[in-house]
Structure formats: structure tokens, C-alpha cells
């Protein structure tokens, strides 16, 4: 990316993160979380850790690290290339699973370096720890080795660029997002100030919490489905019984407020099994999700209804045969 491209990003940051208020600022956090969850889905990472102190955000994962030792397509390292070039519909930095875009934008690590006042990247890989720093998107020098290590992973240390953003880091907001991510991606450990959380049952735990809050009968009577297929990942859960069901759906890590075709499939399965759960949740991950409208709040992939139904119905039918709900 040349300097004029960097200027374009900084001149119109809302094109890349949605706004220049606190919501746009937190898209930088979401982009880092996207990247770490990609690595988790590829079985390359187990946790993320987030801390804030005033203007500073520090984000750490234990993934494979950035490829500072590999040559890039031009001059410099491959990691330097990913940190200085926008990524739109291209492979991820480690060429792992399709980027899931928790934030709904997915422009890659370049927006992290371009839209912060300072960005320091420390990454451990193949027994070497590397460091590179940026000031408003411009590298302060080439990456360099800072030591030998038996650990692996990457830490981003960012400071807010007050020329661009009006908001502040909100630890509570990020903690809520981390807890949601832990439920959507069971087994992922999330850590921050006041938080050390992991759930092995994902949406099942979330549904059970809702059933308990509603004081519904049989709140601990839970069905949970979690599987990876060739074309999609699928997680679904129901808990308790009630005259009114609380429905919640997610697609590629995003809450789909207006639901969509994935929830249609789950509703048909539950109706076919003649159930009225207190809570019913579903999360689907697909490579190329389509949404109705610009807000990405309603999944519009009709062809996913039948595969989801065929995956969920036998499991739920077997569950109700063995359990009295």
C-alpha cells in the first residue's frame, strides 16, 4: 500500500469502521477479535486476553504468530505486508479458515495500524519474538527480533488517534462482547480485567441462563447441537418450556436482530417436534453469508434452510424420545 492509500483510509475512516465515534473505535477491537477467532476455529489458538488503560488497548492471543520471518510479495516480510495492506475478500494472514467478520466489516489488520495514533506489534513464532511499531499507519522501521522464546502468539498495543475518534475504550462493552464470543465459540477462553471465562456448552449455557431467568419449568432440561459440516458450522440449543419462546440467532459471530433463514430452519424443527422451549438459539458460520439490507441484521440464505433442518431434526427428535420435556 502506498502513502496515498493510507491517506484515503485516514481521510474516510468511517468507510472502514462504520463511524468515528465509540462504535467505530470498537470496530478496531472487533477486527482483532475476528482474527483471533479465525485462529481458534483453525485449532491454532485457545485464548484471547484484553486490557485497557486510559488511551491504551492491549490485545493478546496465543495463535501461531505473524509471519515476520517469511518474505512478502514485494520488499519486506509477509507480516509487514499484512500490516500495511488492506485486505478485502482475500485470504487471512495465516491462510486459515474463512474470516468470520464478527464486526461485519473485515478489512484486515491494516486498519489497526492506519487508524491508531500508535500501534506496537509483538509476535512470537518459531522460537523468535519479533516487534514492529507504527505511528498513524507509517512504520517506524522494519520488524526486528527482540529475543528468543518458547511461547507463541501476538500482542497488539494500540493508542487512540484523537484526530480520528471521539470515543474511549469501554472495558465493560468489550467484556460483553468477549462473553458473547465465548458462547458462540465453545471452548474459547476469554480474559480481561475482571473476566476469566470459558464455556464448553456454548449456546446451551446461554439458553439455560434465559430459562432460569424466566423461571420456566425444567430450565435444566437442555438440548444442544454443535457440529462442523463441509459448507458450514452449526450450533443450536433449547432450554426449558414456556408458552412464549425467546428466540435468538447469530450468523458468523453477529447477532442477527431480524433473524433470517437460519432461525426459520430451527423454528421448523422445533414445530415438527411439537415443542415450546423457553429459549431457542442458533448460530451458523458460512463462507459467504448474504443479508437483507445494509445493517446485516437478517440472514438471507434460503438454500441453508434444508441442510440445517436435516442436521437438527434427527438430533432433537432423538433427544425428546429419551427425555421428557
From TrEMBL:
Residues 21-162 form the Histidine kinase/HSP90-like ATPase domain. InterPro entries: HATPase_C_sf (IPR036890), HATPase_dom (IPR003594), Ribosomal_Su5_D2-typ_SF (IPR020568), Ribsml_uS5_D2-typ_fold_subgr (IPR014721). It comes from the Bacteria. The keyword Disulfide bond does not apply. Its EC number is 5.6.2.2. It catalyses: ATP-dependent breakage, passage and rejoining of double-stranded DNA. Pfam families: HATPase_c (PF02518). The keyword Isomerase applies. One of its GO terms (molecular function) is DNA binding. CDD domains: TopoII_MutL_Trans. It is an enzyme of class 5 (isomerase). Keywords: ATP-binding, DNA-binding, Isomerase, Nucleotide-binding, Topoisomerase. Belongs to the type II topoisomerase GyrB family. This is DNA topoisomerase (ATP-hydrolyzing). It comes from Planctopirus limnophila (strain ATCC 43296 / DSM 3776 / IFAM 1008 / Mu 290) (Planctomyces limnophilus). The lineage of its organism: Bacteria, Pseudomonadati, Planctomycetota, Planctomycetia, Planctomycetales.
Amino acid at each position: 500500500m502506498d502513502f496515498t492509500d493510507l491517506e484515503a483510509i485516514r481521510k474516510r475512516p468511517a468507510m472502514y469502521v462504520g463511524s468515528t465515534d465509540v462504535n467505530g473505535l470498537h470496530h478496531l477491537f472487533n477486527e482483532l477479535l475476528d482474527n483471533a477467532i479465525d485462529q481458534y476455529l483453525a485449532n491454532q489458538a485457545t485464548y484471547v486476553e484484553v486490557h485497557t488503560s486510559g488511551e491504551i488497548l492491549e490485545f493478546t492471543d496465543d495463535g501461531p504468530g505473524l509471519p515476520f520471518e517469511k518474505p512478502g510479495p514485494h520488499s519486506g516480510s509477509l507480516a509487514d505486508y499484512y500490516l500495511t495492506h488492506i485486505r478485502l475478500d482475500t485470504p487471512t494472514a495465516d491462510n486459515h479458515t474463512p474470516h468470520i467478520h464478527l464486526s461485519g466489516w473485515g478489512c484486515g489488520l491494516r486498519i489497526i495500524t492506519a487508524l491508531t495514533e500508535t500501534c506496537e506489534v509483538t509476535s512470537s513464532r518459531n522460537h523468535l519474538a519479533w516487534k514492529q511499531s507504527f505511528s498513524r499507519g507509517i512504520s517506524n522501521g522494519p520488524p526486528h527480533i527482540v529475543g528468543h522464546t518458547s511461547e507463541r502468539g501476538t500482542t497488539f498495543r494500540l493508542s487512540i488517534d484523537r484526530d480520528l475518534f471521539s470515543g474511549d475504550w469501554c472495558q465493560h462493552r468489550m467484556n460483553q462482547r468477549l462473553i458473547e464470543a465465548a458462547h458462540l465459540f465453545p471452548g474459547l477462553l476469554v480474559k480481561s480485567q475482571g473476566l476469566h471465562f470459558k464455556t464448553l456448552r456454548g449456546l446451551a449455557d446461554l439458553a439455560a441462563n434465559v430459562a432460569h431467568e424466566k423461571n420456566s419449568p425444567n430450565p435444566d432440561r437442555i438440548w444442544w447441537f454443535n457440529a462442523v459440516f463441509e459448507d458450514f458450522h452449526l450450533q443450536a440449543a433449547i432450554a426449558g418450556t414456556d408458552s412464549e419462546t425467546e428466540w435468538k440467532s447469530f450468523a458468523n459471530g453477529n447477532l442477527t436482530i431480524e433473524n433470517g433463514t437460519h432461525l426459520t430452519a430451527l423454528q421448523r424443527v422445533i414445530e415438527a417436534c411439537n415443542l415450546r422451549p423457553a429459549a431457542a438459539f442458533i448460530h451458523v458460520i458460512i463462507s459467504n453469508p448474504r443479508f437483507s439490507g445494509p445493517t446485516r441484521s437478517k440472514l438471507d440464505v434460503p438454500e441453508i434452510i434444508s441442510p440445517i433442518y436435516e442436521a437438527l431434526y434427527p438430533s432433537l427428535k432423538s433427544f425428546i424420545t429419551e427425555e421428557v420435556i
